[in-house]
Amino acid sequence: MEAKINIIPLNRVEEKLLLFLKENLAKAFQTETKVADEMTIGRSFCNLKRKQYQAYEMLKFMMRKLDFMNKEDICIGIFKKDMYTPPLNFVFGLASKYPRVCLISLARLHPSFNKQRETENTDDQLYLDRILKEAVHEIGHTLELEHCKDSKCVMHFSNTLDDTDTKGYEFCKKCRRMI
């Protein structure tokens, strides 16, 4: 892939997560990957009643702010707070094909998010695996891939964390050919 990947922390994101993504996205897409400067997402994007941020509005904001970026490059915003976009109750991420901009929320990917899942392992590796899968998935959408029927393919739709945990972080043969 010739496009470069720019990882953009939206507000404060732990450096270890950004470096993990930088290393693993570079491997997954065989392309130059860098961590860009932090972008500030204001409270104006937050629906106070829902205690969630409006993902689509954030994506449009990112597109306006990133106007200076190379149009072929891919930009992925990493956000710690919970997001939604109507009519959905929540989203793990959202993407645009042109320009190639996407974002993911880390909130629901963390094992401690849903307190009712008492049996869930709080292992850091599980959290990192989920983050990588969602990042690869959203970048796949920027490359014009749709959702895949193969439950092991990273492009399979994740309606729940179980869906995310079941799939891998690699593309199936059909999706790989389309890139």
Describe the structure.
The chain is an alpha/beta fold. It contains five helices and eight strands, in the order βαβββαββββααα. The strands form two sheets. Strands 2-1-5-8-7 form a five-stranded mixed β-sheet, sandwiched between helices. Helix 1 links the parallel strand 1 and strand 2. The model has no long low-confidence stretch (mean pLDDT 92).
Task: Summarize the structure in short.
The chain has helices at residues 15-29, 55-65, 124-142, 161-166, 173-178, and strands spanning 5-10, 33-35, 46-47, 52-54, 74-79, 83-84, 93-96, 101-105.
SSE layout:
Layout: E1 5-10, H1 15-29, E2 33-35, E3 46-47, E4 52-54, H2 55-65, E5 74-79, E6 83-84, E7 93-96, E8 101-105, H3 124-142, H4 161-166, H5 173-178
Parallel strand pairs: 1-2, 1-5, 4-6, 5-8
Antiparallel strand pairs: 3-4, 7-8
- The parts where pLDDT drops under 50 for at least 5 residues are none
Shape: globular
Q: Kindly state the number of beta strands.
A: 8
Number of helices: 5
The structure class reads alpha/beta
Major β-sheet, in short? Answer: 5 strands, mixed
Rg result:
15 Å
Oligomer: single chain
